[in-house]
Amino acid sequence: MTDDTIAEILDRTALSPVPPSVTVPAPVATDGTQTNDATYARENIRALIDAGIPTLQNLIRIANDSQHPRAYEVATQLMKTMSDLNKDLMEIHKKEMELSEKTAPTENAPIQVKNAVFVGTTKELRDHLKS
Q1: Which residue of 29, 56, 65, 92 lies most exposed, with the fewest beta carbons within 10 A?
Q2: Torsion sign (Cα): 76, 78, 81, 82
Q3: Which positions ≥6 away from 52 have C-beta within 8 Å?
Q4: Cβ proximity of 15 and 65 under 8 Å
Q5: pLDDT digit string (tens) for 108-119?
Q6: 59 near 74, Cβ under 8 Å?
Q7: In total, how many domains does the chain have?
Q8: Exposure string (b/e) for 32-51, b if CB count within 10 Å is 16 or more?
Q9: CA proximity to 60, closest of 52, 51, 72
Q10: CA separation (Å) from 85 to 25, 50, 55, 72?
Q11: How far is CA 11 from CA 4, 68, 71, in A?
């Protein structure tokens, strides 16, 4: 029996062939820097999103064909997961920008000195303050 005959018997349209499995990149060793870790996390999240899109499309197709509540529930759970992955990806970008702003020196930024310590005698301090 082929897919076409089963679909005809059940009065349903045949599903398209399942796409080839998505390959997830192998973990890359990082040196622990924030930039490398952010890049690694970003690549992993993108791979998960890329793998989830065809899976979500297939789940929606299955839910529509079966009209089963559980199939719709699984599809909506994957939609929520995909949405969370996209939010996580944007959060990585936001944190990267915040880190780069903190570490990037600005030319006209005022220098703030907190808890300056003078090492010397009180006479040297007094002479320094007078001048």
Answers
A1: 29
A2: negative
A3: 78, 81, 82, 85
A4: yes
A5: 667 777 777 778
A6: yes
A7: 1
A8: eeeeeebeebeebbeebeee
A9: 72
A10: 17, 11, 15, 20
A11: 10, 16, 19
The reply to whether the predicted model has a pTM over 0.85 is: no
Task: Pull the structure tokens for residue 11.
Answer: 């009065």
Q: Which two tokens stand for residue 95?
A: 């944190």
Token pair recorded at residue 60: 């929606």
Which amino acid would we find at residue 26?
A: A
Q: What is the pLDDT of residues 78-109, one digit of tens each?
A: 999 999 999 999 999 898 888 777 766 666 66
Contacts of residue 36, Cβ cutoff 8 Å, sequence gap at least 6: 30
Range of 77's domain? 3-130
Question: Within 10 A of 125 (CB to CB), how many other CB atoms are there?
Answer: 12
Residue 111 structure tokens: 């220098």
